C-alpha cells in the first residue's frame, strides 16, 4: 500500500550546518508514527521542511504527490497540518475565534459549525472557556486549543511537534489519549517527541533521530523494550 506520507533521502541545512541528513521515513494511513530523539537532533527542522517552511533536498510525497512545488497553503489544502512546538495562538482572541481560524482554508462552511461542536465534545474545557482570551489559558489548555484548531482544518495528517513540552504528567496523559483517539476519526499522526516513553506508548511505529540521522526504527513495542533506548531515553522503568 502506498504510504500517506513518504519522506525520502531528505537533508536540510542552515547555511553550512546540515541539521537533517539523508532521512527517510513514512507514515501509513491511519497510523501514529513518532520521531523521538534528544534536543537538537533535528526533529523540528524535519517537520518544518516537510510542511514547506524550510528548503530541503530530497523528496516528500503525500498520497503519492510530490510536494516540492507546493506552497505551505497548498500542503494545508491537501490535508497536512503542523502544530508547531510553540503552539502559536492568537492570545488576544477568544478560544472560539482561534478555533475558527483553523478552518480558514476550507470552502465547506456548512460543515465548520458541526466540526466546532465536535472539537468542543473532544475538549469540554475549551467549550467552557470559549469566550475567554487564548492568552489566559493554562499550558495544557493551550495545547488542547492548538490541537483543536488543527482539527478544524480537517487534516488527513497531523504533524505534532512536542505536544507534551512543559506540561504536567497528568495533562500529558490527557493529550496523548486524545492523540491516540484521532485514529478513530481517520486522522494519521506524525508525532515528534523528546518524551520518548509517552510517544512510544501512543504510537504504532517509531524512528530514532540523533544528530540529524535516523539511527533506529521499529514498532513501538520493539523500541520500548530496546536496551539501548531504555538506557538513553526511557529512564529504565
Ligand atoms: P528540540 O527537541 O530541542 O526542539 P530538535 O530535535 O527539534 O530539538 P532542531 O530544532 O530541529 O532540533 O535543531 C537541529 C539543529 O539545527 C540544532 O543544532 C539547532 O541548533 C540547529 N538549528 C535549528 N534552527 C536553526 C536556525 N534557524 N539557524 C541555524 N541553526 C538552527
Structural write-up:
- α3 runs parallel beside α6 (139-151).
- The chain has two domains: 1-79 and 155-237, 3-Layer(aba) Sandwich (Rossmann fold); 89-153, no CATH class.
- The protein is α/β, with parallel strands linked by helices and 237 residues long.
- The protein has helices spanning 43-51, 72-78, 95-101, 109-122, 124-128, 139-151, 169-181, 196-202, 220-224, 227-234, and strands at 5-14, 17-27, 32-36, 57-62, 65-66, 80-83, 157-161, 188-193, 205-210, 213-219.
- The chain has ten helices and ten strands.
- The structure holds adenosine-5'-triphosphate.
- Adenosine-5'-triphosphate binds next to β2 and α1.
Reconstruct the topology from this structure.
Blueprint: E1 5-14, E2 17-27, E3 32-36, H1 43-51, E4 57-62, E5 65-66, H2 72-78, E6 80-83, H3 95-101, H4 109-122, H5 124-128, H6 139-151, E7 157-161, H7 169-181, E8 188-193, H8 196-202, E9 205-210, E10 213-219, H9 220-224, H10 227-234
Parallel strand pairs: 3-8, 3-9, 6-7, 7-8
Antiparallel strand pairs: 1-2, 1-4, 4-5, 9-10
Residues 14, 17, 19, 37, 39-45, 194 line the site of adenosine-5'-triphosphate (ATP).
Structure characteristics:
237 residues, alpha/beta, Rossmann fold, 2 domains, six-stranded mixed beta sheet, four-stranded antiparallel beta sheet, 37% helix, globular, binds adenosine-5'-triphosphate
Brief digest:
The chain is of the alpha/beta class and 237 residues long. The chain has ten helices and ten strands. Helices cover 37% and strands 26% of the residues.
| Quaternary structure annotation | single chain
C-alpha end-to-end distance: 36 Å
Share in β-strands: 25-35%
CATH architecture of the largest domain: 3-Layer(aba) Sandwich
Cα-atom Rg, whole angstroms? 17 Å
The domain tally reads 2
Average the pLDDT over all residues and give the rounded result: 93
Q: Describe the biggest sheet?
A: 6 strands, mixed
Classified by CATH, the class of the largest domain is: Alpha Beta
Order of helices and strands: EEEHEEHEHHHHEHEHEEHH
What share of the residues lie within helices? Answer: 25-40%
Amino acid at each position: 500500500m502506498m504510504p500517506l506520507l513518504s519522506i525520502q533521502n531528505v537533508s536540510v541545512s542552515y547555511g553550512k550546518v546540515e541539521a537533517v541528513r539523508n532521512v527517510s521515513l513514512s507514515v501509513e494511513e491511519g497510523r501514529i508514527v513518532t520521531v523521538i530523539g534528544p534536543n537538537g537532533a533535528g526533529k523540528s527542522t524535519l517537520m518544518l521542511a516537510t510542511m514547506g517552511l524550510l528548503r530541503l533536498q530530497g523528496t516528500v510525497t503525500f498520497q503519492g504527490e510530490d510536494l516540492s512545488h507546493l506552497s505551505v497553503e497548498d500542503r494545508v489544502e491537501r490535508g497536512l497540518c503542523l502544530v508547531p512546538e510553540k503552539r502559536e495562538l492568537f492570545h488576544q482572541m477568544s478560544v472560539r475565534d482561534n478555533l475558527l481560524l483553523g478552518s480558514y482554508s476550507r470552502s465547506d462552511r456548512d460543515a465548520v459549525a458541526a466540526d466546532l461542536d465536535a472539537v468542543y465534545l473532544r475538549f469540554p474545557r475549551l467549550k467552557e472557556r470559549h469566550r475567554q482570551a487564548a492568552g489566559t489559558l493554562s499550558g495544557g489548555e493551550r495545547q488542547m486549543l492548538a490541537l483543536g484548531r488543527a482539527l478544524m482544518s480537517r487534516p488527513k495528517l497531523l504533524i505534532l511537534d512536542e505536544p507534551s513540552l512543559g506540561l504536567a504528567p497528568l495533562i500529558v496523559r490527557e493529550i496523548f489519549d486524545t492523540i491516540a483517539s484521532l485514529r478513530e476519526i481517520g486522522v494519521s499522526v506524525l508525532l515528534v517527541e523528546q518524551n520518548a516513553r509517552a510517544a512510544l506508548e501512543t504510537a504504532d511505529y517509531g524512528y530514532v533521530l540523533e544528530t540529524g540521522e535516523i539511527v533506529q526504527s521499529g514498532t513501538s513495542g520493539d523500541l520500548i523494550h530496546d536496551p539501548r533506548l531504555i538506557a538513553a531515553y526511557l529512564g529504565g522503568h
